[in-house]
UniProtKB/TrEMBL annotation:
UniProt KW Ion transport keyword: no
Entries under Pfam families matching the protein: 2OG-FeII_Oxy_3 (PF13640)
Prolyl 4-hydroxylase alpha subunit domain segment(s): 119-316
Organism: Orchesella cincta
Domain of life: Eukaryota
Gene Ontology cellular component annotations, sorted alphabetically: membrane
Region of interest (Disordered), residue spans: 1-53
Basic and acidic residues bias (residue ranges): 1-23, 31-43
SMART domains in the record: P4Hc
Transmembrane segments: 58-74
Record's protein name: 2-oxoglutarate and iron-dependent oxygenase domain-containing protein 3
Signal sequence residues: none
A GO molecular-function descriptor: iron ion binding
Amino acid sequence: MSSEVTQRKGDAVSKSTKEEPKETSGSPSKTKKDKDQAEDAPPKPKFGPMPRFSKQRLWSRGILITGLLVIVWYNSGKKNEQSFADFDEEITAKAMKTRCSSSHEAAVKPFSKCIPKQCGRFVVDNLFSPQEIYALKDLMERVFKEGKVEGAASVFDFQLGLMQLEGETVDLYKLNSTRKIFQKGDQIIYQNLKGKLQRLISSYFAIDHWSLHTAAPMFMTRLNRKFAKRESDEYWHPAVHQKQFKTYQYSTVLFMSDYGTDIEGGRLIFIDGDNTNRTVDPKLGRAIAFSSGEESLHYTERVRKGTRFAVTVGFTCNPNDAVLDPKL
């Protein structure tokens, strides 16, 4: 009897050792395979789940790329900008030589006395006296008083006497008979303006004074921050005077506003071949002369505040392209 009981206990123990251990709900056991899979699983996203739909992914990537492009464009523009004539400078004479473009060389080649010693740009701040600047400013104020400011740019053509007035092109010389826009001394102001700018060109470029002739158009400009109503109002696009005005071989600009006081923006910016933009700050009475070919690709910075006044006078080497002086 006792041997039978002993045999049964032995069978029970043997059976229990063959059975797999059961997992309890409180502490699940993990195999080596489970641990390896847990270690290989990707970490949870730090900033939440990624978009699951293709449209969401495209949208988020588009926003990221656009932002990066804006940052690159902004920083590249700032890095390649260099001041050529700062407002705080008192410039007696400042020059920068450039290589003449083939188009400019071809335009002046037939006129031996009009071929420049070099191409480039030249800035002076004391070409005109304070009295001369005051008289010219008074003339500009009388002229632009007649024109309603509709768009971003108002232009008065000296030779033709034309300006946009209330959406129409009006001849101010004819209108002068009833409105008395111009005064007797204005003719002297014009002659003095043209003569000094002509001498500036001849002295810097080392060409014969009498080989230069006034070219069309010669104009006054008033620029502001308003939206452009016409394509001609978009003054901020890059331009080459020789292409834009055809008969220009040499250009001059006389600034009639102060940068930082009268206006924000409005700088004259040259886009040079060395991948550098060189800036000229407007300053009342500051004059700049430059060759009009492709070596002087430039644009006027858009005005952000205030009003920018200036006078542009071009000169040609070809006497057949010369224009007569207006009778103010």
